[in-house]
Design a protein that fits this description.
Helix content of chain B: over 70%
Helix content of chain A: over 70%
Number of strands of chain A: 2
Strand content of chain B: under 5%
CATH architecture of the largest domain in chain B: Up-down Bundle
Strand order of the largest sheet of chain A: 1-2
Structural class of chain A: mainly alpha
Number of domains of chain B: 2
Shape of chain A: globular
Order of helices and strands of chain A: HHHHHHHEEHHHHHHH
Strand order of the largest sheet of chain B: 1-2
Oligomer: heterodimer
CATH class of the largest domain in chain B: Mainly Alpha
Order of helices and strands of chain B: HHHHHHHHHHHEEHHHHH
Largest sheet of chain B: 2 strands, antiparallel
Chain lengths: 415, 483
């Protein structure tokens, strides 16, 4: 591309920006986008990996595998919900700073965007179908019923993942948008094509499901081992599988990461050999090394660190991915999100962070404490006075939030 | 460069992109309203279970919660962002306007959404695994979090119709855009109807209760909830109509289908009758009856209500400054937003649109139908489908045998000047208006096949001309070399 063509693409992207601007500094949205994407993709990987465990177990006669499969479908089911709910946040933030790129990419593949919604619902229902076909059975070592539904669920999950991958990739090719819209001179309003993808990049993110699920299995052993009815043979088996998955999975992911970096478009410049390009790969292989050293034997403390460490690796990769986007759009196409117009709104900015910290913090601390303790208790769990107080405080914070919402509202309305 | 923020257009010929959004949104409303109402009902029932030490109420919560988890939480949590996705492809500047003004509001809602999703799992799976007092606390938090998601989103929905306060146009500010009379009335109306939906969908679960006495008790509880909510909702709807702009009422009177009012009244009456019958004779409450009522509310109640709310906003799609065809049609000094109409008036829509292909930027006899199609897709297709079916098809608005001259006069005299109620002003150069007219007449006569054939011919002629020109250039170059 010559300088004039690049300038045309730059002008087009700037023209597409929303004139309402942003209510605070764009870097905040990008940072939140990276953080929430890392959390989202962790649960996506968890749902895929635990589904894979359940599927493998369904076709394996080994009783320990069967029990593990039954337990992991529970994790998969919850992970889908959490992946969806957390995925809302990066979807929100990408529209704020990268609206020209995201909206164009979506419109040009609109049929797939709509399909995404329908296929995801079907994938989730297929998983629930498998779950309800089997969850009431006393014998968890028996062959599960309706195994096909789990295959359907996983296949559809991979399709929706690919759609999302393609939409994200298309954002990085503004030089091709016009040709996708006007194919050989004929306008195409159908949105029926996915125009760009990078199989290595997609495979890398999917493959991370293996080490992340390995981390889940190691954590699972640790979490369940304190119950008075714990079966240590079974739990040790789970942890050993987990350690193997972390090692093998990290190596596979590392290879795929290198392949991704080697297949970057020219517009990415020297990203592959830059600090963030290298760090992403080192993070992935570093996870295998960390696990080899810290998860030996029972690893009572570090077993609980396996998932947070996976999140840290995810954060490094998410940051690399964000820097890559910046390098392409700013480095090559001169589109800089930092200069997005700001119409500062301190109230709504402050309210979000306060809600996030106070409401989110207090409620989730209470919820997770209850869930954690109940999961480790045989029979009915009755919380201590301190935990009870946590619940009361959380309720009061929620009620106060509602009061301020209406108080401020009526004040503004009456003014 | 005089470019404006227009994206490519997605054209869905069968039902139209607007209906795709409406379908997803209607389904989401059923799922989300039922969930929020149920969350508050659970808080009440769990409190009662704790006070009266009753296991049957917790069992009911578990059953209803599980039902909701599979149907409304799966579908609701996906169709929620699904509305973003569908509006992104159908109306990118509409959703962009909302996102950029209310990003923090949505982010705040997201915090409550996370609590809600974690909460529903806890409410269902911790029945019998934690003491009743703890379950009650979780239920109360879950209920308040669910309600918070609703009150936040209603403020954004109200902005779609009109900014909370008129002063927002001059001063901007999220608070002025968010809070207004319409916001509060709509919140009340939606809260009422969400309890109606909760009571109807809850009937599916109550129908499976084996113990006659408990079934009677729950039928009565849901019945009273449903009756009070339906009557309150109907009254709030009348109040809501007083809070919308006059223009919206005008659209409602003139543009909504005839069946709208009848359908809404029939659904309200039918819903009340359903509650009364099931309360008087709980044995009539079977899953099929309750399921039928839920579908009836979805198809005959929510669908017309949601599509009416969409239609009433015309010609605007968001905040009374973004037209339904994505053009910004009004200055908003408070946000530093300028109307894009002057730019289009200056250079024409083909020059102002960033995605106009190079070969359509200048009009000539060889690209008129292509350019006309491009303009129709940009300006018209969001509200009027160029196909036979779909949303308010274009062909219905032009009589058979209409001439290009007549249509061109209409375009220039009415559309470019904005002299028609509930339609945006659509500036065009004269040659653009002619191109649009040529396309519309062709589409009227022969539909899509005729348009496609004409475009193929234009492209073929363009390519042939290009080949000829290249050949001539080559000959000229050879001749030059020879000399």
């Amino acid at each position: 591309m010559d300088a004039q063509q690049i300038a045309q693409v730059t002008d087009m992207m700037y023209a597409l920006r929303n004139p309402a601007g942003l209510p605070t500094y764009p870097i905040i949205f990008v940072a939140l986008g990276v953080l929430t994407f890392a959390m989202h993709i962790l649960f996506v990987q968890l749902l895929l990996g635990t589904s894979l465990v359940a599927l493998y177990a369904a076709y394996n006669n080994h009783p320990l595998w069967r029990r593990l499969g039954a337990a992991m479908i529970d994790v998969a089911k919850v992970s889908v919900s959490v992946a969806i709910v957390i995925g809302v946040a990066p979807l929100l933030f990408v529209q704020v700073v990268y609206d020209p790129q995201w909206y164009t990419s979506n419109v040009l593949s609109a049929d797939w965007v709509i399909s995404f919604i329908i296929l995801l619902i079907l994938a989730y229902w297929a998983m629930y179908y498998f779950y309800f076909q089997n969850y009431k059975r006393e014998d968890k070592t028996a062959q599960p019923k309706s195994r096909w539904s789990l295959i359907v669920s996983m296949a559809l999950m991979l399709v929706v993942g690919f759609i999302m991958h393609s939409l994200t990739t298309q954002m990085l090719h503004p030089e091709l948008w016009q040709s996708w819209y006007s194919n050989q001179g004929k306008l195409d309003f159908s949105g029926s094509q996915l125009h760009a993808y990078n199989p290595w990049r997609f495979a890398f993110f999917i493959s991370m499901a293996i080490p992340v699920t390995g981390a889940m299995l190691v954590t699972y052993r640790r979490f369940k081992s304190v119950r008075s009815d714990a079966d240590h043979t079974y739990l040790n088996f789970a942890a050993e599988v987990g350690k193997k998955w972390i090692l093998v999975g990290s190596i596979i992911s590392f290879v795929l990461y290198v392949a991704w970096m080697a297949s970057l478009p020219e517009t990415a410049g020297n990203f592959a050999t830059s600090f963030w390009g290298i760090l992403g790969g080192l993070g992935v292989i570093g996870y295998a090394l960390w696990a080899q050293i810290r998860l030996r034997g029972e690893a009572k403390f570090c077993s609980y660190m396996a998932l947070p460490m996976a999140l840290v690796i995810g954060l490094i990769v998410a940051t690399s991915r964000e820097v890559l986007r910046y390098d392409i759009l700013n480095g090559f196409f001169n589109y800089n999100f930092f200069d997005y117009k700001i119409v500062m709104d301190w109230y709504s900015t402050g309210l979000f962070f306060l809600t996030f910290a106070l409401v989110g913090g207090s409620v989730l601390a209470y919820f997770l404490t209850i869930a954690w303790k109940a999961g480790q208790t045989v029979g009915v769990y009755t919380p201590s006075a301190t935990v009870n107080k946590m619940g009361t405080v959380a309720i009061w914070i929620m009620v106060l939030w509602m009061i301020q919402f209406f108080a401020v509202g009526f004040y503004i309305w009456a003014k | 460069m005089d470019l404006i923020s227009l994206y490519p257009t997605w054209y869905e010929p069968t039902v139209g992109s607007g209906w795709v959004v409406a379908l997803i949104a209607t389904f989401h409303v059923l799922a989300s309203h039922t969930s929020v109402g149920a969350a508050l009902l659970f808080a009440y029932l769990s409190h009662k279970a704790y006070r009266e030490d009753r296991d049957d109420l917790l069992d009911f919560i578990k059953k209803y919660g599980l039902f909701l988890m599979v149907f409304t939480y799966v579908a609701g949590s996906i169709t929620g962002p699904g509305i973003w996705y569908s509006t992104t492809v159908a109306s990118p500047n509409g959703i962009g306007a909302l996102i950029h003004s209310f990003v923090w509001k949505w982010a705040t809602e997201w915090v409550f959404f996370v609590i809600e999703v974690v909460g529903v799992y806890m409410i269902v799976y911790l029945v019998g695994r934690v003491d009743k007092r703890t379950h009650m606390k979780i239920s109360v938090i879950f209920g308040v979090a669910s309600l918070a998601t609703m009150v936040i989103i209603v403020g954004i929905l109200s902005f779609m119709m009109m900014p909370g306060k008129e002063v927002w146009f001059e001063e901007g500010g999220y608070l002025n855009g968010f809070y207004g009379t319409n916001t509060f009335i709509q919140t009340g109306m939606r809260m009422a109807f969400m309890f109606t939906m909760t009571a109807v969908v809850g009937g599916i679960v109550v129908a499976s209760i084996k113990d006659p006495a408990f079934k009677k008790e729950m039928t009565r509880k849901l019945g009273w909830l449903g009756i009070i909510a339906t009557l309150t909702g109907a009254a709030m709807f009348q109040w809501y109509l007083t809070s919308v702009p006059d223009q919206a009422l005008l659209v409602m009177e003139n543009r909504l289908p005839e069946y709208f009012q009848t359908s809404i009244i029939a659904v309200l009456a039918g819903t009340l009758a359903y509650f009364i019958i099931t309360m008087l004779r709980p044995q009539t409450l079977v899953q099929g009856f309750a399921g039928f009522m839920a579908v009836t509310i979805l198809v005959a109640g929510l669908w017309p209500e949601e599509t009416a709310r969409e239609s009433m906003r015309k010609p605007w799609v968001a905040g009374q400054y973004v037209y339904s065809n994505q053009v910004i049609g009004r200055d908003v000094p408070g946000m530093g937003i300028e109307s894009q109409l002057p730019i289009i008036e200056k250079v024409g829509i083909l020059q102002a649109h960033p995605f106009t292909p190079d070969h359509l930027r200048e009009l000539n006899n060889g690209n008129q139908i292509q350019a006309g199609e491009f303009i129709a897709m940009t300006y018209c297709s969001n509200c009027h489908s160029p196909s036979e079916t779909g949303i308010r098809p274009l062909h219905r608005y032009f009589p058979e045998g209409v001439t290009q001259e007549r249509v061109a006069d209409y375009v220039k005299g009415v559309l470019t000047t904005g002299n028609i109620a509930y339609m945006p002003k659509m500036p065009m150069r004269d040659d653009e208006a002619e191109a649009l007219a040529a396309y519309l007449v062709l589409n009227n006569k022969g539909g899509q096949p005729a348009v496609t054939a004409a475009i193929d011919l234009e492209i073929e002629q363009r390519e042939r001309a290009l080949v000829e020109k290249n050949a001539q250039d080559k000959i000229a170059a050879i001749e030059m070399e020879g000399k």
